[in-house]
Amino acid sequence: MTKRVVITGLGVVAPNGVGIEAFTRALKDGTSGISYHQELKDLKFSCQIGGIPPVSDELKSKYFTDLQLRGFNSSGILYGCISGIDAWKDAGFILNRDSKLDYDTGLIFGTGTSGVEKFREAIYKLDDGNVRRLGSTVVLQTMASGVSAYLSGILGLGNQVTTNSSACSTGTEALLLGYDRIQNGKAKRMLVGSCSDHGPYVWGGFDAMRVMTYKHNMEPEKGSRPMSATASGFVPGSGAGALVLESLESALERGAKIYAEVLGGEVNSGGQRNGGTLTAPNAEAVKRCISKAVENAKISNVEVDVINGHLTATTKDALEIQNWSDALNRSGEDFPYINSTKSLVGHCLAAAGAIECVASIIQLKEQFIAPSINCEDLHPDIEKWLHRDKILQTAQQYDFNIIAKASFGFGDVNACILFKRFIA
Amino acid sequence: MTKDDLIAKLKIIVAPYVQDEAAFKTLSEDTDFVSDLKINSANLVDIILDIEDEFDIRLENEDMEQMLDVKSAMAIVTAKLNG
């Protein structure tokens, strides 16, 4: 008998809102977190806009000691720890640096790369023959599992503590890995999520690939245009999302607030076959991932009320819509409501899955559909598969039970998960 | 530089790394960085770098190995300054 798994805590550091309250407001108001960055222009980026969460020094000092902040230069770890600590507190736990080691709780916090700015600092010193002067934290800030190391120490977690990495599906995958562990009785709780650094050293490679938009430098908030006929590439973002997953019995025993139930999901890969490449998805595998997720969740296609898509604002958006339509066997007016959180925060890369899972849970818990902005000029190919009323330009209250979230990543990897409203 | 001046300077340098404030208040020549001040041993390399910057000296690996308490730090810094 496998355990039921629910969500009892949320935390988020997003370009359009730090903290669940601010992020919820931004989702309801359709507030964009995308802004112009002179630094990108100075470095001759084609795309000079991006999403960076507003984190003040004052806020930092609420989460980190002065010693931890000494020589600290890893924005991903910063965002990850803030979101993780917030989620932990939101789940009803107190932060106590002398707390008893908690063997029942683990941590799976993903990232693509860690501390690139710190790494850059170190490389300059090292190439200058000064390896001896790197200081003690270069390894901790630049190892992939740095965020998990910092966070698990702050919270005192004693179950599995690790970091996963699967490009832009990282956060959604982390959630499913944590879900599996609780479902199989290996942990009572798993803090899961993902984070991504901001800035030119993470974003530059994408700019070079010409997959980021260069057409909206003068109107940043209009730049992220998933599903639009005038979409011309994604807008880079950054931040972190975190969720406390817990067995239903543990949550009920604690009298915890329950946001939603994780019904199940699926991760797979297209193996870079049948049209899949390092950068493009194998559509057959995407559809299989969605279908298997629905099957694992023990629901039927018609029960999916809302979809929070991957939808980055590249030419692949129409293909994604077609894949959802084929996998769920639903189209036109029968297609579920669908939105892209990326229209508001940009593509937060490794953090995208976690931030968007948090956005999905908020919509489910508060019973509304967030707007998917900047697609008033819906791409004509997309209208082949769904009726335009299924995409909202302003938030709408909606009484619904199930939301599907999918994330896809470079390397032809896929993750899809289903959340259900929890009614005690 | 007098002994008191040197201790005062070292005190400012180690302050950010100290985990035991009570021991820090009564810091003397006999204070041990790790066992008394509860400084994380990984941070000893950061203290070394801060000492190098403050006194404009260079500390070698052998110096580092010995710099485990206030007394040895004072001795090494003094020797470098006079060297």
Concise account of the structure shown:
Chain A is of the alpha/beta class. In chain A, helix 5 runs parallel beside helix 8, helix 9 (170-183) crosses helix 15 and helix 12 (283-296) crosses helix 13. Chain A has helices at residues 20-29, 38-42, 57-63, 66-69, 75-90, 116-127, 138-142, 146-155, 170-183, 200-208, 248-254, 283-296, 317-328, 342-345, 352-366, and strands at residues 5-14, 17-18, 34-36, 49-51, 105-111, 161-162, 189-196, 239-247, 260-269, 306-308, 337-339, 368-369, 396-397, 402-409, 413-421.
Folded structure, characterized:
The complex is a heterodimer of chains A (424) and B (83). With 424 residues, chain A is an alpha/beta fold. Chain A has two domains: 5-260, Peroxisomal Thiolase, Chain A, domain 1, CATH 3.40.47.10; 265-421, Peroxisomal Thiolase, Chain A, domain 1 (3-Layer(aba) Sandwich), CATH 3.40.47.10. In chain A, 34% of the residues lie in helices and 19% in strands. Chain A is built from 15 helices and 15 strands. In chain A, the strands form three sheets. In chain A, strands 1, 2, 5, 6, 7, 8, 9, 10, 11, 14 and 15 form an eleven-stranded mixed β-sheet that branches. Chain A has a two-stranded antiparallel ribbon with strand order 3-4. A two-stranded antiparallel ribbon of chain A has the order 12-13. In chain A, a hairpin with a 2-residue loop joins strand 1 (5-14) and strand 2 (17-18). Chain A is globular, with a radius of gyration of 20 Å. The relative contact order of chain A is 0.19. The model of chain A has no long low-confidence stretch (mean pLDDT 97). With 83 residues, chain B is mainly α. Chain B has a single domain (3-82), classed as Non-ribosomal Peptide Synthetase Peptidyl Carrier Protein, Chain A. Helices cover 58% and strands 0% of the residues of chain B. Chain B is built from five helices and no strands. Chain B has helices at 3-14, 21-25, 44-55, 61-66, 70-82. Chains A and B meet through loops of A and helix 3 of B.
